[in-house]
Write a structure and sequence with these properties.
- By secondary structure, this protein is mostly beta strands.
- It has a single domain, classed as Calycin beta-barrel core domain (Lipocalin).
- Helix content is 5%, strand content 59%.
- Strands 1-2-3-4-5-6-7-8-9-10 form a ten-stranded antiparallel barrel.
- The model has no long low-confidence stretch (mean pLDDT 93).
Length: 165
């Protein structure tokens, strides 16, 4: 009797496409007024993300850190986000999860169209999130976050310009 063991899945093409958007980067950006609650001011950000592959290239793991400031330069807070993304052959989509230092945990599903990667939160959370990465060139990309509250329209929360390290 011969036993055949299934080899771990390999999604080399899909992961190579996803890796284009997961570069080690630094960014500067803006957070829209009202994003941290009614009456909250416009803010600026300085951040960094570092990525690596895990489990024989099946997943991309990212660690994000960001400092948030008032527009006059006054420090407000330091935030962190843990990111994991990969290809799900069962759904034929990219899947991701995030856990941040503000107590949020989110599952997302994504797709790539040319130079644009989009991830949308899954399910029916009160606060829905949509993330966009747009690759401009080998050194620069933009990343923006939009949210929808209670099924309302998506609104821009944050926009960052990222430079590859």
């Amino acid at each position: 009797m011969t036993t055949t063991l299934a080899l771990p899945p390999q999604h080399v093409e899909q992961m190579a496409r996803l890796a284009r958007f997961h570069r080690n980067v630094r960014w500067t950006g803006t957070i829209q007024p009202g994003s941290y609650g009614p009456g909250s001011p416009a803010l600026t950000t300085i951040g960094e993300a570092r990525y690596r592959t895990i489990q024989n290239g099946l997943w991309i793991l990212g660690e994000h850190e960001q400092d948030v400031y008032l527009t006059d330069g006054t420090f407000v807070r330091h935030t962190q986000l843990h990111w994991i993304a990969g290809w799900d052959p069962e759904t034929g989509e990219y899947q991701a999860s995030t856990a941040d230092s503000e107590g949020h945990f989110t599952f997302l599903t994504g797709h790539i169209a040319g130079r644009l990667l989009t991830f949308d939160s899954i399910g029916h959370p009160r606060l829905r999130t949509r993330l966009f990465w747009h690759v401009a060139d080998a050194e620069t990309m933009t990343w923006r976050t939009e949210v929808s509250v209670e099924g309302g329209p998506y609104e821009l929360v944050e926009r960052n310009v990222c430079t590859t390290l």
